[in-house]
Amino acid sequence: MANPIISRTELATGVVAMSVRGVVAKSAFLLSLAALSGFGVFLYALSVGISSSMLHTMAIVSVFAGMGLGLISAFKPQFAKALAVPYALTEGVLLGSISLIMYRIYPTVPLSALSATFITAAVMLTLYVTGVIKVTEKFRSIITSAVIAIGILYLVQLGFRLFGSSLPLLFDGGMVAIGFSVFVTLIASFSLLLDFDNVEKGVAFGIDKHYEWVYSIGILSTLVWMYIEFLRLIGYLQND
């Protein structure tokens, strides 16, 4: 996604250069860890009956923990390899928590969101590889600006939620909220194109192999974001 985990990466060449295969392998590994962690949290919380309020707390804590680990990896790439596994496990806690919250309301939504995420990721990869959508500097600038704006808006919403309130219209499940959710889901999906382009450029510039972990963390963060947005959007549509 258009996030500092990838976009902040400095072009540091090394003796052994990174490869697309290396990024794919590491991304698959981290995605598997996040999935296992998520399923574990989901099943355990479901079996012992952890309350929704506790799940919300777990989700918020994991968001900030993941943000911290991601930023350290972005600005201190030499630590990315050591932080990759904790990051993936933390994202799993987030996935498991929010999935169970939604499952208790609409049982079919988590699976639908998961399917939508992987289908969309496959479509984005196809569009990128075939050149149907090209990542130009203008495209990158637009998506990056949108991601930053959405991030700020979400932080403001989180502040409102901590005081038992919410931003008007954007998160109430109404038509405006659905439209906003569609927009954010599209931006999250298009962010994956930036990830693909960053990896391709990294390989072309001969970035050191340990940066594969930085790129893989970035790809995982985008996929998690996509899943959360699909979860929200499909939940709104179920409610409608």
From TrEMBL:
InterPro entries, per database record: BaxI_1-like
Highest taxon of source: Bacteria
Keywords in alphabetical order: Membrane, Transmembrane, Transmembrane helix
Presence of keyword Repeat: no
Entry keyword annotation includes Nucleus: no
Transmembrane segments: 28-47, 53-72, 84-105, 111-130, 142-163, 175-194, 214-237
The protein, known as: Predicted membrane protein
